[in-house]
């Protein structure tokens, strides 16, 4: 007989979470919120899987249900082939979690905190390896309270790596970090994966998802909008290129219909920052048509650029909104 195939890292079927509205005595009752609305996901071992969506789209709620921290309202979750409600302590030892916000004790040193976390596991990762993983060797004697934001975030991830987990959950691991710290986090995700680990991460940075993830699920309003590799999702966009256009003073002086009416322009969206993104297949031709339109309307050009389409463009095309707009 063939051995049983190993189960996927994560399996969700019809996952749903409704937060009940408040019924406070002193406050008006608030309506209940459908945070996750029937999600089916299958994440393979060794994969880096991204949940990509704007603020409030249900990413944190989804991962917290997978992590066994929140009870689903309906649907099923399997993590590493197990369900929550059995030998939960054993299952918890096999996963590492870095929450969206972590409160770390300020008056311990980095080495003391990691030593404390190491004491919770039967076979913890060596302290020196953990410090090297997150490039905090030089900070091992520093108080946690004295670390920079990026160093703290790396320490939180080191805490998640202590038990040599088979799967690592990172909820918005680089939100608020500067580009250098962001790259350090990307590097540590890569080395964890090189050791065979599975990663589930949430982000609203499309560049991060494009760089790190084998597959991404784009979610909005708690529903799966699209699933695929970043390259597949981008290739499915009509055109494949984007012309970015900023009009002097006032982007709203142009109407989306006027831009869409241009022969080489497919879609046109105005961002909250006042930048028009035009989905096009022939960037030079579309740029020339857009410039001619500005001239006809007597509008000045502030900036014109072309680039290949990105995951952000996929999101805009699917939802009509920008990830950053929240
Ligand atoms: N504990 C809670 N009680 C009530 N509503 C919540 C709670 N947590 C999250 N929500 C709501 O659920 C929706 C999804 O939130 P969340 O999962 O945090 O999204 P994301 O991580 O994508 O920003 C939002 O509308 C949010 O306001
Ligand atoms: Mg979140």
What is the secondary structure topology, with strand pairs?
Blueprint: E1 10-19, E2 33-43, E3 48-52, H1 59-66, E4 74-79, H2 88-93, E5 95-98, H3 110-118, H4 127-133, H5 149-161, E6 167-171, H6 179-194, E7 198-203, H7 206-212, E8 215-220, E9 223-228, H8 230-235, E10 241-247, H9 256-260, E11 265-270, E12 276-280, H10 283-297, E13 301-308, H11 311-319
Parallel strand pairs: 3-7, 3-8, 5-6, 6-7
Antiparallel strand pairs: 1-2, 1-4, 8-9, 10-12, 10-13, 11-12
The structure holds adenosine-5'-diphosphate and magnesium ion (MG).
Polypeptide structure, described:
This protein has helices at residues 59-66, 88-93, 110-118, 127-133, 149-161, 179-194, 206-212, 230-235, 256-260, 283-297, 311-319; strands at 10-19, 33-43, 48-52, 74-79, 95-98, 167-171, 198-203, 215-220, 223-228, 241-247, 265-270, 276-280, 301-308. The chain is of the alpha/beta class. It folds into two domains: 10-229, Rossmann fold, CATH 3.40.50.300; 238-308, Alpha-Beta Plaits (2-Layer Sandwich), CATH 3.30.70. The strands form three sheets. Strands 5-6-7-3-8-9 form a six-stranded mixed beta sheet, sandwiched between helices. A four-stranded antiparallel beta sheet has the order 11-12-10-13, with helices on both faces. The radius of gyration is 23 Å and the shape is globular.
Keywords:
six-stranded mixed beta sheet, binds adenosine-5'-diphosphate, 326 residues, Alpha-Beta Plaits, 13 strands, Rossmann fold, binds magnesium ion, globular, alpha/beta, four-stranded antiparallel beta sheet
